[in-house]
Structure prediction request, 205 residues.
Amino acid sequence: MIIFYEKRLEIFIRQQKSHKLFPYFVFSFVFAISPFVATAQEKGEWFFESAVRLTGDAEMYFIGPSWNAGAGRSVGKKLTMSTSYTYFSCSRALPGMPKEKYKTNTLDLILNFNFLSLFKDRQGWYAGGGVAWQSRYEIFFINNTYLSESKDYFTSAYNVGYRFPVIIKGKPRSLSIDIKATGAYREKTSIEILTQVMMGVRLRY
Prediction:
């Protein structure tokens, strides 16, 4: 019986290690292809993107800026597939209370539909969705005690926005008013419909 549980524990540890390593492989891929974007963009296929968004957690208790970088490729005239990494860290202290902290690292893979042509119209609405991996770390104060909690999980990702053309150093680029969200995530006694909501500007090179 002891040997059985030891084997189960060994399998569980291996699964956790592979689960935590997976996002870093995706993250490495995103930045590995970024040097090739400048030349590939001329064909209208590959792109690199960066974004700054105002971000909040599920309860909108922690609100602050998040930073995003990623890359992707156009699929036909109206579809784009992209993967990106988002970093969000925020701390807050209520009057007379210790400081609490919330931090997430998010990797997403999203397929967007552009309602107007990517190459002819160069502006218009887009919307889509996909999957995301999120690592969350929280420090909070409850019942006169400091507690910390970390979670790693897969969830859904959503994206909607409006893009319009801009000229940077004589080359056409795409600037967007962009909204992203992730969720849902199920707790033991509750469920978060959206784990994180982000709104800001995105620039594609």
About this structure: The chain is about 15% helix and 60% strand. Residues 1-19, 30-43 have pLDDT under 50 and may be disordered.
